Amino acid sequence: MNKNIKYSQNFLTSEKVLNQIIKQLNLKETDTVYEIGTGKGHLTTKLAKISKQVTSIELDSHLFNLSSEKLKLNIRVTLIHQDILQFQFPNKQRYKIVGNIPYHLSTQIIKKVVFESHASDIYLIVEEGFYKRTLDIHRTLGLLLHTQVSIQQLLKLPAECFHPKPKVNSVLIKLTRHTTDVPDKYWKLYTYFVSKWVNREYRQLFTKNQFHQAMKHAKVNNLSTVTYEQVLSILIVIYYLTGGNNSMSRFCKFGKLHVTKGNVDKLLGILLTASKELKRSGPH
């Protein structure tokens, strides 16, 4: 088979490593699993031995035909020949997602499974450096993902585990969905602030004096060690500090609140209401 870079993957073939991965997935016989990238069907076969149903999506035509022949008698497996980025996950069904994903599509795929699926648990094999970037709240990706999922490393997978052997190590990570920190109605507002924050476009958000006040409200002493909760607090405090007019006075109790997962929705509600009030009152 000619190597097609667009669809290229590094395959896991070691029985020992595959079994270690399966053990980490903690699957039950009642589980429905969506697999990203059937590949040669090695992991698919093991998923189907435990799960109730496995739907595996593969884009590469050669691999799809190969795995279709290999798995044609397995009644627990449904193969779909499609680009995962175009695939629509079900809305009501309970399921998990598992995937050994191409390195060059990691960002697109992780956004797809987090923001366009309702999977309770998501298990992905990714490049180790990419995993670290998902935890970095100084990056847009990290700040967006943290609102929906918690992320943890389950296994480290050295390059020697794969064929062809990549130049980097990989890890198996688990993304566990939690109650969203940012409800849909506030999402555009949140992403706007995140885009300005990570690009350090502070002047578009507040003055130098307001910046220092925001740091004080969020109890931030060092931006290099700022936490996710503190970033949320800073972004919310911005509107309070940049109000500068009487229309903001009804929201001034905000200054006594501190961000926790329990009151983020309340604080964002204050932020949204304040922003609408500012637009109505106009510049002062």
Automatic annotation (TrEMBL):
Domain of life: Bacteria
A single GO cellular-component term on record: cytosol
Gene Ontology MF term list: 23S rRNA (adenine(2085)-N(6))-dimethyltransferase activity; RNA binding; rRNA (adenine-N6,N6-)-dimethyltransferase activity
Ribosomal RNA adenine methylase transferase N-terminal domain span: 17-179
Enzyme Commission number(s): 2.1.1.184
Binding site for S-adenosyl-L-methionine: N10, L12, G37, E58, D83, N100
UniProt cross-references to PROSITE patterns, sorted A to Z: RRNA_A_DIMETH, SAM_RNA_A_N6_MT
Alphabetical list of Pfam families matching this protein: RrnaAD
Reactions it catalyzes: adenosine(2085) in 23S rRNA + 2 S-adenosyl-L-methionine = N(6)-dimethyladenosine(2085) in 23S rRNA + 2 S-adenosyl-L-homocysteine + 2 H(+)
Keyword RNA-binding in annotation: yes
NCBIfam families the UniProt entry points to: Erm23S_rRNA_broad (NF000499), erm_B_23S_MT (NF012220)
PANTHER family in alphabetical order: DIMETHYLADENOSINE TRANSFERASE, DIMETHYLADENOSINE TRANSFERASE-RELATED
Protein family membership: Belongs to the class I-like SAM-binding methyltransferase superfamily. rRNA adenine N(6)-methyltransferase family.
Name of this protein: rRNA adenine N-6-methyltransferase
Taxonomic classification: Bacteria, Bacillati, Bacillota, Bacilli, Lactobacillales
Gene that this sequence comes from: erm_1
